[in-house]
Every structure is written in structure tokens, then in C-alpha cells.
Amino acid sequence: MAKSKKSVVETPLMKQYYSIKNKYPDAILLFRVGDFYETFSDDAIKTSEILGITLTRRANGSASSVELAGFPHHALDTYLPKLVRAGQRVAVCDQLEDPKLTKKIVKRGVTELITPGVAISDNILEHRENNFLAAVHLEDKSAGVAFLDISTGEFLTAEGPYDHIEKLIASFKPKEILFEKSKRGLFTDTFGPRHYTYGLDDWAFTPDAARDRLLKHFQTKSLKGFGIDHLKLGVVAAGAILHYLDLTQHHQIRHISGISRIDEEKYVWLDRFTIRNLEIFSSVNDGGRSLIDIIDKTVTPMGSRLLKRWVALPLKETAPILDRQSVVEYFFKDPQFKMDLETYLRPVGDLERLVSKVAAGRITPREMMQLHNALKCITPIRQLCLSAENDVLSRMGDQLNSCDTIRDRIEKEIVPDPPSALNKGNVIREGVSAELDEIRNIAFSGKDYLNKLQQREIERTGIPSLKISFNNVFGYYIEVRNAHKDKVPSDWIRKQTLVSAERYITEELKEYESKILGAEERILVLETELYNGLVVALSEFIPAIQLNSNILARLDCLLGFSSLAAENHYVRPVVNDGEEIDIHAGRHPVIEKLLPAGEEYVPNDVYLDNDSQQIMIITGPNMAGKSALLRQTALIVLLAQIGSFVPAESAKIGVVDKIFTRVGASDNISLGESTFMVEMNEASSILNNLSPRSLVLFDELGRGTSTYDGISIAWSIVEYIHENTRARAKTLFATHYHELNEMEKSYPRCRNYNVSVKEVDNKVIFLRKLVPGGSEHSFGIHVARMAGMPPSVVKRANDILSELEDSHRQGGISKPVEDLAKHREGYQLSFFQLDDPVLKQIRDQIVNLDINNLTPMDALNKLNEIKRIAGLK
Fold it and tell me: Which CATH class for the 574-785 domain?
């Protein structure tokens, strides 16, 4: 690189390129050259691979060349998202002056640095997802975190122990995380290597620098008004985010008008294991469906984004839960109201991101009219809400601001169907500017004007053959045949003499010419001035429109809950501050939607409390539905605590403050952790964070180790949860260790249940019904048969099971009978036919033995050698 650079600096363009590139060494620099964005050297190689465009080489000065890849400037919106989605930081370097107005090299500079966490373009963003940038400030045992979505203006911060921060990162799923360069190792050890990260200089994470940056942005004297003044680590993280926006050239951020604290006391704890195990946001199976896929019935992108936040942060306080439920129920009572509200809400679109573009000065004329149309919908929505016989809806209606003045101004100044870009023209309506109307009239009605002028001059001079024409030498002129030149007025100026005619110009014609030749350029200037003035006026309404966006998103979520409940027969749960979870005929919200046509989901009852039935030990065969039962219980509780109705006949939910799951074998071998280690890590996290209102789900704990170890650990964990006087956590414990059924006799709040099956003609039928009592065995061999296991394996497994179930049997498992051995699938008659190299070596030793001349000592030595070859001592 150094050698290449040394030679290419001889060309002024490349000298300028490298001076800018040195400021952004870790970003791909898109360098505007004329009508193209070019990339050079390593950037060009990387860009050509990602975009699939041609990589070429060009000469640059003394016998050197450099790699080159580029694309037309108008294709930026096509190619830029591909680079960012590939995880690249992209610096857009534009020409900062008109090449026509300079004789030197064109001045250039970076106008924007786009990274995965800092993006405004619709082509990069997912419409129904937030695009969060996070910053983490790590101290000894705790950390501060901040989240910002620059496309919506949402700005949040929190602090707490590492596991709390990890939980928030799992919930918010930031596209990029900032941290201190010097703490890279600590960050990776704490949060893993899976995230897209960027290290900032340590000084950006100092308390004074961070606080000053926040105060400067919000133009306040303290942070007390935001409720974050006491969050020292959170404030540092938030300040680092604003510093990063400065670095990435994002200075138009008026829409970031506030910052909120994520209050741990308000929301249910869902750690990253639980979010993954319950498949809340994504399925672990390719092509599978997550909870959010099923329950998202919103009609606007901002509603969809808010719903994900609600699901990630379920409420612990009953009052706001009941408020949400009351609105959903009102929609059931008044279906016409719901229908009208949805009709007005659907055209609103993404008002939240549109208003953020206003702040950044990047709203296009077409988007301006979309914003106008969204504001038009607010008045009828407000009237509907105010007319509702529901206090929550009335309060929401009261908070809506129809922004009449700016809405009417947009309608008055912008044409109804404007172009997608301002420079395409015809954006401003007629009647807004007299000067603009006049120039447009000249530019677009020039022929009429010239015809009128020609007719007027004919009448004035009496020259019937007079005509007005144009050429590139001296512009517009009046041509008069020689026969009439004596009638030419004295105020005409002769410009050219022809054989049979004379050509003249007039003051009026020259004035018209200057107007029409600069008309298109002047129209663009005037339209830009008027449009920018409108954007400035609109920016004053950003806080009001952001509040509107938030209220409309909440209405959208609640409308979605209503649609979900109506489509899938959900009921309103009773949510209170009690300690009971009582679910009648509960169903799994995702699985019931994926069943084959005609097959109905088998519902089940679950009852848990802190005094009589704290722990349900659930046994039953594999595939019987134990895992589904555990997950559906957690999902019903979660749905209830975000204010949704639930898939059950009835449900009483005493609010939980934490949901823990240890479900499935999530093997982290790639990270150097075995299945069992992962199990134990997750189980440890649960036991160390229990609370009296926790809901705990254990599924098949201990299967990553030997049977007796597994039984011992499972028994010990159940005992710990039962005997924990500080926190009697409600627990569902699904297991294949039937020995745990013995615990019911010794531990009064343990109850045995099993998912029932029926045996008919040595075949098992899964009834998927939860019934009291433990089960005798797991029917694993039946499942093996159903999976297509070779019959001989199934038969042999049955024989071994019979021997194991004889508790008084002494000694090891007997060998298979000869008949069975001979009829195994793929059975080899001779062990010497095997391809094992060790067996071949042993075979060779035996084949080469001279039995007749072998002494007893030689035989013992040879046998010892064979044992050594076989790896036996």
C-alpha cells in the first residue's frame, strides 16, 4: 500500500483522494469524480467483490497503476445499501463546488459516513424494525448502555450489572455497538464476539465530555428533567453516541429531542436465553415462525416497531396493562369504531421516520406529501378517540395534534403529485411566488409570448412578413425583408444584413432572451429556496409530530391485538398483583397456527402458585408435547403482560417479574463450550437471579451428562428452588428422569404431572394432554421406531430396556443372541472383513503365526503385542 501511495501522489486527483482517505482508513471511500463514484486500491477490490462490479486498473503517474471500481452517481441508492448490509462503513465524498466555476481541482469532502448503526436511507433500513446504534461503557462489575435509532429519534439509556446490559442488547438487537478501544477484550469476554462493533477513543467515554455533549445538544443546564442524572454510566454511554454522530457527519439531529431511562423496575426480565428459547423474535429452525411473526397485525411500520419493543419489555405494573386491555376490549365492543380507526390509520405510513428526515433536511417532495397525507388522517382519528367511551382512548385523542397550519401550508405550496427529487422541478404550486410564476410562464409559454410579440410588432409597424427567430450567434432577432425596411422603427437595433433582409433586436427581446435562457436554472433556484423554507417551518413541528407518531403507533399495536384476538379466539386474561398463574385450556400461539389443516391443537390447564403448587414436575415420552406446554405457559404470561389477549379459555395471571428458560440443547461447541456447559451456565444464571415472582421453565435439564449425574443435578436444582425461603419461584420442570417423581413425597409444593399417551397394539398414540401423576417410562423406543430406526436396533433396544427395568439384575448387559446378531442390517460374517487399520494389523499378526512351532512364552509375548496394538493394557 505504501509503495502504491508513494507513486500515485504525483497526480493531483489521487493526492486529494489519499488526503481524504487517511481521515477514514476503516471506511470504504466513495469518491465523486464527475458523474461517477469511484473507489481505489483495497477499497476497489472490496467494493467490486461485494457489488459484483468490474475491477479495472488505471495508470497514475510514473509507471504505476491502481485498482479502480466505480458506478454512476445516480445508482448510489442501489449500491450503498449493499455495502452497508455487508457490514462496511462507507464514507461518501462529494464535490463541494461546481466544476465549471473552478480552474483548479474540484474541492471535495466527506458529506456523510454511513455505518450499519447510523443510517437514514429507506433503502438501508428495514421498515418494520428499529435500526439501533448502541454504546456500552464498561466498569468493574456494571456498565452503562445507550440506544439510538437516528431514523426515528428514539434515544434510551440504562445501567446495571453486566447480565442486565446483555439482556437489553438481546432485546434491542443493535446493528452496531460502540465501546472503548482499550476495553475490547473485556467487551468480547462479557458479550461475546457475535456483534458488529466499533472502538472509540477512550476520552469519548469520560463523564465530563459525555455530560457536556448531552447538555449542548439538548440545550439544558442539567439532565434531571430526563430522569437520567443519576445514571452516571448510562450518561457516559449516551454522550459517546452523540460524539459518534459528530464523527459520522450527522449534524442535523433536532429530532433527537429527548432521552429516556429504561427502568428495570418497570419491565419483566427476559434474558437472552429466554428470548432465544421461546423463539420470540426469530425461530431456531430455518423457515420456522417466531412469536412476533404470528402476533404482529399492525398496519404501520412504526406500530410494528413499537410492538417489538413491547414484547422485549413486558410490563410489571398492572395499571398500564389494564389500560391496554381496556382499549382492546373496547374495539371488540364497537367493531365499527375499530373499522373506522383502521381505515384512517392505514394511510399514515411511517410518519415517525418521515419527520426524522425533516430534521436531517433530507425529506423529498414526494415524502413531504406523504407527511401531509398522514397529518390529514390525524384530525378524524382525534375526533374518533375523543368520542370513544373509554378513558384511555380519550386521553390519547386529547394528546393528538393535527398540526393544521403546517398541513395547510404544505397543501397550499406543494403540487399534489410532486416528483421524487427536488431537482426534477415542478414541485411548488402556482400562486405561491409571483416571480416563479412569471419565469415559468416565460420558460413554458415562450412560443405563445413570441407569437404575441410578433403580432403586436406587425400591427405597430405594418410589416406583414416580419418574423421573430433565434440563432446561437446573437440569440433572438426580428427579421424584415428589404422591401419593408423603411418601416422599421427607430428603437430597433440592426444586428445583421443579409442579401434580401435585415435582422434587428429590441430591448424587450433582449430582456426576454435573458429571462428565458436562465429560466430553468432560476426556476430550480427559486423552487429550492421555497421548498427549504417550508422544511424549516415544518421542523418547528417536529416534537408535536413525534408525539403524534408515538400515539398512533400505540393505537396501531392495540388495534393489532384486537385483530389477533378476533382471528384466533383469544380471551382477556385477568392480570393482577396476586401470586397465582391459572390457565385453562391454554394453547401455544405459534404451534396452533402451523398445524396441518383439520388438526386441532390440544389445549392444557396449568396452575402454579407460591403455597400449594409451586413446582410442576412433568414427565412423559419424547414428542408428547412437554416442551410445547412449557413454552406456551411462558408465552401466555408474556402476552398477558404486554396487554394482549391470550390463547386460552380463561387465564388468571399474577404478574411475574422475571421469566427464565432452560430449554433445548443449544450447543456452543463453536465457542468451546459443550452442551452440558451451556446447560449449567444457563441454569446457574437462573438460580442466582430468582425472585418470588419469577416464572422458571426447565426442559430436560442434565441430558448433556451421564444419567446419574443428570438425575443428581436435576434433583438438587428442584430442591434448591423449593427450599429457597427468599424466593419461591413458580417452576415447570419437564424431565425424562422419572426418579424425580419421588420428590412429590418429600417436598409439599412439588406436584407430579405427565403428558399422557395411549398404547394400542404395542404402538403409542400421543394424546398431548397434561394429567396428574408421574409416568412409568419414556416410550423413547416407540419414537425410535416412528423415526425409521432399523428394526434390529429397535428390537435390541427393547431387550436391553427389559433388562435395565429389572432393578435386581446383577452384572452388565448381556450380549445379543446369535440369531439377532446374524440378522443385523449390514452384518459382516467375518471380523477380518472390516476396514479398520488396527484390525487389519491384528489380522496380519495372527495370519503370520506359525502355530506348530510356537512356544508357550512366544504365544504370551505375541498375545501381549496384540493387546498393545489394540490399545489395551
Answer: alpha beta
How remote is the C-alpha of 767 from its chain's centroid? 39
Residue 486: count of CB within 10 angstroms of its CB:
8
- Architecture of the domain whose range is 2-114: 3-Layer(aba) Sandwich (3.40)
Same fold? 434-529, 574-785: no
In order of 168, 203, 211, 214, the CA distances from 207 in angstroms are 22, 9, 6, 11
Matching residue, cell 430406526: 789
Q: How many C-beta neighbours within 10 Å does residue 3 have?
A: 8
CA-wise closest residue to 392 among 310, 335, 320, 305: 320
Separation between Cα atoms, residue 400 and residue 663, nearest integer Å: 44
Can you tell me the distance from the alpha carbon of 559 to that of 60, in angstroms, rounded to the nearest whole number?
Answer: 62
Burial 425-442 (b: 16+ CB within 10 A, else e): bebbbeebbeebeebbeb
Domain 296-403+543-568 falls in which CATH fold? MutS, DNA mismatch repair protein; Chain A, domain 3 (1.10.1420)
**Eight-state DSSP code of residue 571:** B
CB atoms within 10 A of CB 658: 20
Q: Which helix (H) or strand (E) holds 385?
A: helix 365-387
Q: Provide the sign of the torsion angle of the four alpha carbons 630, 631, 636, 640, taken in this order.
A: positive
Q: Are 65 and 14 in contact (CB under 8 A)?
A: no
- Which DSSP symbol is given to 201? P
Compute and round to an integer the Cα radius of gyration of the chain: 38
Q: Express each pLDDT in 228-264 by its tens digit.
A: 989 999 999 999 999 999 988 888 888 999 999 998 8
How many other C-beta atoms can be found within 10 angstroms of the C-beta atom of residue 734? 24
133-262 carries CATH number 3.30.420.110: yes
Q: Where are the domains of the chain?
A: 2-114, 133-262, 296-403+543-568, 434-529, 574-785, 831-869
| Burial of residue 609, with CB atoms counted within 10 A of its CB: 0-12 exposed, 13-18 middle, 19 or more buried | middle
Lowest mean pLDDT among 192-196, 748-752, 835-839: 835-839
Query: Phi-psi bin for 61: left (phi > 0), alpha (psi -120 to 50), beta?
Result: left
| d(C-alpha 202, C-alpha 206), whole Å | 7
The amino acid occupying position 33 is: V
Buried b (16+ CB within 10 A) or exposed e, 509-542: beebbebbeebeebbeebbeebbeebeeebbebb
- 648: Cβ–Cβ under 8 A, 6 or more apart, which residues? 570, 571, 573, 583, 584, 585, 586, 587, 603, 636
> In this predicted model, what pLDDT tens digit does every residue of 596-636 receive, in sequence order?
888 888 999 999 999 999 999 998 776 667 888 999 999 99
User: What is the identity of the amino acid at 18?
Assistant: Y
Question: What's 434-529's CATH class?
Answer: mainly alpha
